[in-house]
């Protein structure tokens, strides 16, 4: 059985470990690293997985999942460089960081797969986009797809599209949470108790998402089915268009894409 080590056991790292366990992998085939001793002890107690230092993880694991914040990557690479060889698969979950960074800083021939997941991983409903580096083979991609399928859906895209993926689905849950928050506030404004507004909107969001996923209908068709002539919905949509909600979303997602590009720029030509 392949040994997998998750470097950085935050929410995403923990969610992946939990998903791998639930998919049938044994705790003995998993490792994690965590800077805070209390957090490390908590995770070991909860899952039975050993917490180790990054260098030990690199020596023992066949797959290293790098799940640290992008700004923390340099010390991690410095620690890994002397101990990682081409037999180890690197799976990067760091927003904005190109596969070329790992290929440049680690041993010649190290296979790297770049991944953009999102936070619904914590409930097993992630959307993860994967892209191979120069030395990653179809077998490496199949292994990463299998791992990530334990916590949601997986799609393969060219690495040139990863900044767009980051803006759209990586940050995407935040846009939905923002919209739900605003709609709950609207319910309160209209006189509903907060608990009632939350129940109405959250279940509406769940149902709408399920319709999109299961009917395969275009969202325009589903929206039009709710929009009766001279009815309540068309009046609401008129106000959304009047206030530029569609344009604001386009601009917001472009801004997120630009920030993802900025995160990767310092590493484009780093030595």
Automatic annotation (TrEMBL):
Metabolic or biological pathway: Amino-acid biosynthesis; L-proline biosynthesis; L-proline from L-glutamate 5-semialdehyde: step 1/1
Domain called Pyrroline-5-carboxylate reductase catalytic N-terminal: residue spans: 3-96
Statement: the UniProt record of this protein carries the keyword NADP: yes
Cell compartments where the protein resides: Cytoplasm
Catalysed reaction equations from the record: L-proline + NADP(+) = (S)-1-pyrroline-5-carboxylate + NADPH + 2 H(+); L-proline + NAD(+) = (S)-1-pyrroline-5-carboxylate + NADH + 2 H(+)
Cellular compartments per GO CC: cytoplasm
Protein name, as recorded: Pyrroline-5-carboxylate reductase
Natural source organism: Amycolatopsis rhizosphaerae
Lineage: Bacteria, Bacillati, Actinomycetota, Actinomycetes, Pseudonocardiales
């Amino acid at each position: 059985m392949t040994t997998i080590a998750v470097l950085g056991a935050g929410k995403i790292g923990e969610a992946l470990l939990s998903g791998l366990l639930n998919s049938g992998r044994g705790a003995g085939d998993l490792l994690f690293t965590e800077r805070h001793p209390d957090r490390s002890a908590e995770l070991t107690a909860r899952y039975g997985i050993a917490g180790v230092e990054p260098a030990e993880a690199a020596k023992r694991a066949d797959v290293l999942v790098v799940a640290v914040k992008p700004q923390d990557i340099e010390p991690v690479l410095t620690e890994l460089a002397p101990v990682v060889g081409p037999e180890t698969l690197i799976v990067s979950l760091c927003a904005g960081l190109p596969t070329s960074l790992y290929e440049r800083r680690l041993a010649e021939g190290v296979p790297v797969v770049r991944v953009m997941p999102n936070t619904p991983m914590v409930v097993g409903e992630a959307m993860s986009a994967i892209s191979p580096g120069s030395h990653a083979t179809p077998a490496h991609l199949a292994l990463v797809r299998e791992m990530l399928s334990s916590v949601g859906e997986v799609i393969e895209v060219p690495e040139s599209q990863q900044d767009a993926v980051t803006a759209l689905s990586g940050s995407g849950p935040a846009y939905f949470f923002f919209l739900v928050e605003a709609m709950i506030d609207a319910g309160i404004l209209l006189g509903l108790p907060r608990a009632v507004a939350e129940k109405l909107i959250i279940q509406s969001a769940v149902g709408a998402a399920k319709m999109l996923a299961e009917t395969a209908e275009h969202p325009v068709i589903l929206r039009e089915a709710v929009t009766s002539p001279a009815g309540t919905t068309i009046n609401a949509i008129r106000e959304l268009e009047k206030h530029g909600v569609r344009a604001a979303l386009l601009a917001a997602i472009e801004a997120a894409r630009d920030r993802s590009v900025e995160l990767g720029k310092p590493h484009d030509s780093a030595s």
